[in-house]
Amino acid sequence: MTEMVLLTGISGFLGSHIALKLLNRGYRVRGSIRNLDRSDEVLKTLESHGGAIKNLELVALDLTKDDGWSEAMDGIKYLQHVASPFVTKMPKDKMELIRPAVDGTTRAITAALAARVERIIVTSSMAAIMYKKDHDRSIPYSEKDWSDLDAPSANYYTQSKTLAEKKAWELMEEAGRRNDLVTINPSLILGPLLNKDPGTSGALVLRLLKGSIPAAPRFIFSMVDVRDVAEIHIKAMENKEAGGQRFATASDNLSIMDMANVIKAAYPQYRGKLPKFEMPDWVVRIYALFDSDVRSNIGEIGLERLIEASRAKNLLGHEFISSSEALIATTKTIIEQKLA
């Protein structure tokens, strides 16, 4: 019998790419979505990109509810827990992010342990690694680092991803099965869209293409291609030596101005929409008074975080796509989807 994988969050940007790779490798996939009303949309997206949907079934699972988790694990060999709380704006109450992230991870892992699932992969984030109070910025962040919840730059999202990943390791330690868990810590995920949903990362590129950022704040992002992140999820699942490890997944860094220049070179027809200069920091600080998204990241102006992601190369044999290539792929598919 072909091995079956439970993939939570299959409708998301990363989840759909993981699903495609699993199906193309011959796995059977049981994918979870919050509401089965979206089934046709998910099936259409995957089938349109060559996914063998005859080997796919969909189930309804909610991070905040117990219903269905034990049943979803029936016959499962591997768990890919990708689902995460989604918000378009930072909530006023941090528990709106933290509770479903931690409780959802707890539900997924508890059910997987009870079903004796062989290998559990949890999607975490570089947010759980690179927000520390005292860190020499000349030293790259790596898998040994953990974010401090009380760091000035640790917003609610950072706290939710850090606490959820720590809960995953805690549960596996308590069960005596630490080496059956792998966590994947991606930076800002770009790459080709599979449908018209740009996601949170693609939304930044879409804003650039629509002329919504006339001057570029000095924000610098570590980026990674979604195809790399999906591939590492599967390599970590299949590679015995990956057990008990965290994997930082990041390519090179780009500032918003760098992003604009990359897009301009590849798609000069958008030159008039893209920012032409960097916004002075004092202007950004004034702008933050009126924009909650900018305000929540104001401490990041001009800060560049270096990331050591060699474990994926050394242990899994993985080479990363450049951030510029990932950005161009995002831009290309946004244009193809007629979003900009």
TrEMBL record:
Assigned protein family: Belongs to the NAD(P)-dependent epimerase/dehydratase family. Dihydroflavonol-4-reductase subfamily.
UniProt xrefs under PANTHER family: NAD DEPENDENT EPIMERASE/DEHYDRATASE (PTHR10366), STEROL-4-ALPHA-CARBOXYLATE 3-DEHYDROGENASE, DECARBOXYLATING (PTHR10366:SF564)
The entry's keywords: Oxidoreductase
Domain NAD-dependent epimerase/dehydratase: 5-244
CDD domains: AR_SDR_e
Keyword Glycoprotein: no
Molecular function GO labels: dihydroflavanol 4-reductase activity
SUPFAM superfamilies on file: NAD(P)-binding Rossmann-fold domains
InterPro entries: Epimerase_deHydtase (IPR001509), NAD(P)-bd_dom_sf (IPR036291), NAD(P)_dehydrat-like (IPR050425)
Record protein name field: Dihydroflavonol-4-reductase
EC class: oxidoreductase
EC code: 1.1.1.219
